[in-house]
Design goal:
CATH superfamily of the largest domain: Butyryl-CoA Dehydrogenase, subunit A, domain 3
Number of strands: 9
Shape: globular
Structural class: alpha+beta
Bound molecules: 3-thiaglutaryl-CoA, flavin-adenine dinucleotide
CATH topology of the largest domain: Butyryl-CoA Dehydrogenase, subunit A, domain 3
Strand order of the largest sheet: 2-3-7-6
Number of domains: 3
Largest sheet: 4 strands, antiparallel
CATH class of the largest domain: Mainly Alpha
Distance between the termini: 55 Å
Length: 393
């Protein structure tokens, strides 16, 4: 079915954007209509990532939107980054995931924590989409509590020896490089760039997902992998290093979720005006109007939240806790809208004729990865009370 998407803008938020923001947003929107919408259902059904889209994402500046141009990034501001994520996720969370991981979880740490040689070696190839990156933080026994990780490396003189395993890693089966977080012999967390082809490094795929089907997920397994010393990211260590990357990715997700929500709302609004029951469009019934009115209210609130957060981020003032609030609120909002939109579509809502079920299932991952819904609530709780509720003493 043709993509007839029309974005809601109830509070004229476009007036808050610059001409450049709108140009970037509209360019990505048109690209998604042309390149993503016609194929995405098929790829989700097949459980494949449409890797041929990477060239287009790169041309749009979707890989490293805010990374300086001298390293191949697009050199854009944080609101542009957010708008790109919004439009990509309007197409599919899996496409936004690919851009998020490459930009904020692979390019960002190399740019921020790496040295000049590492920046020059990796960033241009990641920005152009020639290389695919992945980010290994989560382990089978350490998800919400990454500080407990057991993946480790030992100093062997002229190289490091890396052992352990990461789980639930976006892009793992197709990655050329992985930014991997591991503990040294003193138990300090460092980032290492592991390259495909290093002996003992394997990336088995995770099959049978009902969510994020148009995204490849897998493990990163390290069995005595010899990592050259020059592959250690030298400029930051400790848990704060990977958590700093998550700030950037979570910010992008807060925008991205609005894209999925807008797509569900737009489809539900159109369907409700076209679908006739009891001789009238179902849009004439109060119960349907209630759903649509509440969806638009929540989307509008979420749009304002990320716009302000984007301003703060541009000024270098956005806190981890503010980002947590936006990620948590907006993903939850999108998931609830997807469920309501599914109701409005009746039986048709469960089919691939409409994007609803795909968004809904995707959002079940989005509400879990990059910190679960409840972990983000605890981050806010700790911020306002000063008491951590993560651990029970
Ligand atoms: P805690 O004691 O609070 O903090 C440890 C150290 O880190 C510092 N820190 C930060 N630094 C920079 N940026 C941040 N956002 C930071 N947050 C904390 C903190 O100051 C401390 O520093 P220091 O010097 O005092 O040691 O750590 P904790 O062990 O109590 O854990 C806190 C918690 C639970 C909030 C955190 O670990 C967490 O966020 N857990 C959720 C894990 C998570 O989000 N994993 C995501 C994996 S990646 C992923 O999902 C990618 S999906 C990609 C896609 O497909 O889009
Ligand atoms: P757990 O941490 O075991 O949590 C299970 C439940 O317990 C949750 O409801 C959680 O909120 C709750 N819980 C945990 N601790 C507490 C507490 N202290 N108080 C109250 N409740 C608590 N990771 C990466 O490193 N890189 C990736 O690229 C990546 N991609 C992903 C892609 C997909 C499709 C998915 C599903 C996950 C991905 N992840 C990735 C992993 C993701 O970040 C983790 O799944 C997430 O952090 C949660 O960890 P967990 O699944 O181990 O759940």
């Amino acid at each position: 079915m043709a993509d007839r998407f029309q974005a809601p803008d109830y509070y004229q938020i476009d007036d808050l954007l610059t001409e450049e923001h709108k140009l970037i947003r509209n360019t990505v929107r048109e690209w998604v209509k042309k390149e993503v919408s016609p194929i995405i259902e098929d790829y989700a059904q097949k459980a494949e990532y449409p890797i041929q889209l990477n060239k287009g994402i790169a041309e749009l500046g979707g890989f490293g939107p805010y990374i300086p141009t001298e390293y191949g990034g697009a050199g854009l501001d944080q609101i542009s980054y957010g708008l790109i994520m919004q439009e990509l996720e309007r197409g599919d969370s899996g496409i936004r995931s690919a851009a998020s991981v490459q930009s904020s979880l692979v390019m960002y740490p190399i740019y921020q924590y790496g040295n000049e040689e590492q920046r020059k070696k990796y960033l241009p190839k990641l920005a152009s989409g020639e290389w695919v990156g992945s980010f290994g933080l989560t382990e089978p026994d350490h998800g919400s509590n990454p500080g407990g990780m057991i993946t480790n490396f030992k100093d062997k003189g002229d190289h490091y020896l890396l052992n352990g395993a990461k789980m639930w890693i976006t892009n793992s089966p197709i990655c050329d490089v992985a930014v991997v977080w591991a503990k040294n012999e003193e138990g300090r967390i460092h980032g290492l760039v592991v390259e495909r082809g290093m002996e003992g490094f394997t990336t088995p795929e995770t099959h049978g997902k009902w969510s994020l089907r148009a995204s490849r997920t897998g493990e990163l397994v390290f069995d005595n992998v010899k990592v050259p010393k020059e592959n250690l990211l030298p400029n930051k260590s400790g848990l704060g290093a990977p958590l700093g990357c998550l700030d950037s990715a979570r910010y992008g997700i807060a925008w991205g979720a609005i894209g999925a929500a807008m797509d569900c709302y737009d489809s539900a609004l159109r369907y409700s005006k076209e679908r006739i029951q009891f001789d009238r469009p179902i849009a004439s019934y109060q119960l349907v109007q209630k759903k649509l009115a509440e969806m638009l209210t929540e989307i509008t609130k979420a749009q304002l939240l990320v716009w302000r957060l984007g301003q703060l981020k541009n000024e270098g003032k956005a806190t981890t806790q503010q980002i947590s609030m936006a990620k948590r609120n907006n993903v939850d909002m999108a998931l609830k809208i997807a469920r309501e939109a599914r109701q409005i579509h009746g039986g048709m809502g469960i089919t691939g004729e409409y994007p609803i079920m795909r968004h809904m299932m995707n959002l079940e991952s989005v509400i879990t990865y990059e910190g679960t819904h409840d972990i983000h609530l605890l981050i806010t709780g700790m911020d306002i009370t000063g008491i951590s509720a993560f651990r029970v003493d």
